[in-house]
Amino acid sequence: MFIIFFGLINKVFPADSISKLKNSGNLNFQEIIENAKKKVYPALVFVKPILETYNTGKKMRVEAYGSGVIISSDGLVVTNNHVVEKSVQINCVLFNKKQVPAKLIGVDPETDLALLQLIIPDKIKPLPYAKFADSSKLEEGQFVMALGSPFGFTRSISLGIISNIQRYLGFKSIYKYNTWIQTDAAINPGNSGGPLVNTDGKIVGINTLGISGSGLGFSIPSNTVKKITDKIKKHGHIPRSWVGVNLQPLNDFYSGTFISSDKGVLIIDVEKGSPAFKAGLKTGDIIFSVNGKDFTCQYVEKIPELYWQLGELICDTPAIFKIFRDAQEMQVNIIPVLKDKAEGEDFECKEWNLTVKQINRFKNPELSYFKKEGIFIQGIDYSSGMSNSGLQLFDIILNIDGNPVKTIQDIKKIYDESISDQFREKKLLFEVQRGVYHLWFVLNYNLEADEENAVIQK
Fold first, then answer.
1. In terms of domains, do 178 and 109 share one?
2. Cα-to-chain-centroid distance, residue 34
3. Can you give the pLDDT at residue 343?
4. Which residues does 176 contact at the CB level (< 8 Å), separation at least 6?
5. Which of these three, 235, 265, 289, is where a domain ends?
6. What is the span of the domain harbouring residue 332?
7. Using only C-alpha atoms, what is the Rg of the chain?
8. Catalytic residue numbers?
9. Which residues contact 346 (CB under 8 A, 6 or more apart)?
10. What are the respective helix, strand and coil percentages of the chain, to the nearest 5?
11. 161-209 pLDDT tens trace
12. The pLDDT of residue 25
């Protein structure tokens, strides 16, 4: 094994690691890995949040497992947003196997990052912490280690190489604001939020995604992590402007689109009701300048940089967009608005054996396309016999027994009245929207619901 690894050293080791190897008469690859591990292993954190979920048709509290890494001596911890999202309590197990509580400082769902503060006595400080490397200096083929807590095990390390330094995954509505490090180091459920570490023992990324059985894992680059955590420390969240355009590079191998231009980026979609829609931008327009700054993307890896540029526009202040439309240059003024990432409210209709939620245009774009505001079914307890009602997940509730449903307050009122009347028949007529169709179902509801416990690994 060592012979194979050393045969690749000149191609896969960074220059400073090569220097260390040359300057040490008996330092071998195993020792390099061991030295790197010693630097970051004490900073590895096993994250154990208690989450409040509504997806099963009941309001439940479940324990989840994830990972994190300490990045400062006073106990700041980076992890993934999806590890701690909807948490009501967070505990962390440290290197010394002590469990301590943590406070959530802030999250950024767009990049799937979160920042925690360990709550520990001053006498325990300073804590061991890991340092960041410059992810812009990474190269394909360099050795890396993925640290974390896979499947709820408290500590684990896997070895691999960097397969791609700039993988773009933002083809859907999420993950538009950064590219990803692709690695073949094993990233399993529970590894989320743990560090990807180079042979110098520095963080090059935060492990986030893994495709089971494929050998593909994806980490958020350390430069993005530093940028996001600095903003969360300052604001408690990431304030972004929103104009409502989806972008595609001029040369796109995925769609087979190639535009012979040396500047600009193609608009492939304008969201209805957005500032860009109101200003008259159209699908097929090419934006080449925003507030006098170049706005160009030849290939997909540049797309996140442009979304960042749009996200940093000043809200409620006109921005000047210069575009090409039908070979003609035009100027359009767009007034960005704050991209509100606050999720809609959840509500448990316990005796109806279902849970509902407000539509959020950013979290539920497939629903907001049909109805910008409203309430949808987010969870059904099928063990209660709800499967016979005909209602389905993601049905948009329009009215119940002839009473319009537009807000959580509307459905709370209908729900309270239905369960307070002990003499009424336990049936309700639901009108729902499912895609473009309006449908009607009778719900025979049960006044008994069972409690459940669950464990989720992230």
1. no
2. 32
3. 66
4. 110, 170, 303, 304, 307
5. 235
6. 241-338
7. 25
8. 82, 112, 192
9. 54, 59, 355, 356, 357, 378
10. 25, 35, 40
11. 999 999 998 876 678 999 999 999 988 888 899 999 999 999 999 999 8
12. 43
Burial of 326 per CB tally in 10 Å (0-12, 13-18, 19+): exposed
Structure-block tokens of residue 286: 């090419």
Residue among 51, 133, 124 nearest 84 (CA): 51
* Cα 381 to Cα 378: distance, rounded to the nearest angstrom: 11
Helices (H), 182-319: 222-235, 275-279, 303-311
The set of residues, in sequence order, having a beta carbon less than 8 Å from that of 64 and lying 6+ positions away, is 48, 49, 50, 51, 83, 87, 455, 456, 457, 458
Q: Distance between alpha carbon 160 and the CA centroid of its chain, in Å?
A: 24
**Amino acid in position 60:** M
In the beta sheet, which residues pair with residue 269? 246
What are 85's two structure tokens?
Answer: 């999202």
Q: Which of 310, 338, 366 finishes a domain?
A: 338
Most confident of 173-182, 365-374, 376-385: 173-182
Q: Are residues 15 and 147 in the same domain?
A: yes
Angle between helices 15-23 and 29-40 (to 10 degrees): 120
